[in-house]
Amino acid sequence: MINIVTVCGAGVGSSMMLRLFAQQILDAEGIEATVDASDIGSVDPSAYDLIITTSDFADALRDASTPIIRIDNMMDKAFLKEQILQAIAEIGR
Description:
Blueprint: E1 2-8, H1 14-29, E2 33-39, E3 50-53, H2 55-60, E4 68-70, H3 77-91
Parallel strand pairs: 1-2, 1-3, 3-4
Helix pairs in contact: 1-3
């Protein structure tokens, strides 16, 4: 099972929307994963296999060894799907 976290400033806005979209994509693809939402101040990147966030927060997490998907147009589900599937394929290598 893959552990994914979506991150935003407070953990209740964009991270919740990204969590929902990511879970829908994963469910549609039949990929077992846990998707959590977190705020930037309390997220532990090492506890996850993949981080999904905007560029601003990705810059704050740049020292993390966990792969980060940067998404700035949260309504672009096709881009999010492409990035999630690519990242999962690379994690599996």
